[in-house]
Known about the structure:
By secondary structure, this protein is of the alpha+beta class. The protein is 38% helix and 20% strand.
Amino acid sequence: xxxxxxxxxxxxxxxxxxxxxxxxxxxxxxxxxxxxxxxxxxxxxxxxxxxxxxxxxxxxxxxxxxxxxxxxxxxxxxxxxxxxxxxxxxxxxxxxxxxxxxxxxxxxxxxxxxxxxxxxxxxxxxxxxxxxxxxxxxxxxxxxxxxxxxxxxxxxxxxxxxxxxxxxxxxxxxxxxxxxxxxxxxxxxxxxxxxxxxxxxxxxxxxxxxxxxxxxxxxxxxxxxxxxxxxxxxxxxxxxxxx
Length: 243
């Protein structure tokens, strides 16, 4: 029997983030190596800037799942998800949290500015912002996990459009479902790119018997051109919800 899960749509703004410098170094390709003094100083500068200008906003909601003919639907909406990979990911889920997070337009503007005046700092700033958006995703995932556990459920790892066979063409549907433009100023281009760029949408399965599937880099559409994969590393988007 499906139990009721207590929740309402959550929209929070200007969240304080702690960005792991080790994650920044990983995105910069350092792996476990330490950065030189100059690079380390620039990272600190960028992290401070991001803390000042980022608008760390997110919105998420939790929906009941129903399944028909190999597709997933969400009750009380016209939202439909197609794809064997996401169907498998949510196969034991009774509900699904859908989330959208962003660091805001000012972060994008700063990256573009540094790309014109200081290419090195632009690259480092971009890596800091990437680590920042992942930290924000982790924050939302932690909230969803807490809600789930308090109601006797477990959660899957988060799963984003563009991974496996979940097409990025689903982005507009996610934003419309969450009314993300109104809540966090998040929009999408005709080519399905999120604006601001440092933004993420994702789905998290919720259920009593969910399986936490360890996502594989080989399933990612960017795998063949991924610098992390060539170094035997991961971009971080394949980490599981429970470790």
